[in-house]
Amino acid sequence: MKKYQQLIFIILPLILGLSNCTDALDMAPDGNMQMDEVLSDPDKVEGLLNRCYNNIPQKGYSYWFFDALVIAASDDGYNSEEAQGIPSSGLYADNNSASYHHIRDAHDGHGGGNTDYWTRSWQQIRLCTQFIEVIDEAAVHRETDRGRFKAEARVLRAFFYMELIKWFGKVPVLEATVPFDADFSTMTRSSVYDVAKFIAADCDAALAEPNLPWRIDNGNDAMRVTKALALALKTKAILFAASPLHNEDQDHWEEAYATAKDAVTRLKANGYELFTKTTQPDVYGNGPAAAFRQLVTQNADYSATPRDRETIFQVRGGDVFVWHIGYIGSNMANTYKCGVAPTQELVDAFETINGQPVLDLSKPYLDEKHLQPNYNTSNTMYDPNNPYANRDPRLGETVLHNGSKIIFDSKEVTIETFTGGAHAPSFDITNRSSSRTGYYHNKMVTPGSSGNRQVNNSRWKYYRLGETLLDLAEAAAEANHLEEARAAANEVRSRSGMPDLPAGLSQQELILRIRNERRVELAWEEQRYFDIRRWQKPDGDLNETSKWFTAMVITKQSDGSFTYTRRNISTNPRGGWQNRDLLLPLPLNEAATLEAVTGEKWQNPGW
Question: What is the value of pTM for the model shown?
Answer without folding.
Answer: 0.93
